[in-house]
Design goal:
There is one protein chain. This protein is α/β, with parallel strands linked by helices and 85 residues long. The chain contains 3 helices and 5 strands, in the order βαββαββα. Strand 4 and strand 5 form a beta hairpin.
Length: 85
């Protein structure tokens, strides 16, 4: 399983990253961080074709196993748990 987080350094993106990191540990998943800004944590993908290939045009974003689940908002732990159920 992979979690993808689009990260741009904002408070919202930081919160999404923290939630994704927590859930990646719980579900033994790989965390992929997509960032167009310097200083992002995790795997950094800068190829715009890869980023837009996910259909992500706004941050924060979360994808699970290559499927975008949320864009432009921070999901609560409960929301993510529902997505993983």
């Amino acid at each position: 399983m992979k979690f993808l987080v689009a990260y741009n350094g904002t408070k919202e993106a930081e919160a999404a990253l923290e939630v994704a990191q927590s859930h990646a540990r719980i579900f033994d998943a790989k965390l992929v961080v997509v960032s167009s800004s310097e200083g992002g944590k995790g795997e950094k993908i800068e190829d715009i074709n890869v980023i837009t290939g996910f259909g992500v045009m706004m941050t924060p974003a979360l994808a699970i196993d290559g499927e975008v689940k949320a864009v432009g908002k921070v999901l609560s732990s409960g929301d993510i748990q529902k997505l993983l159920a």
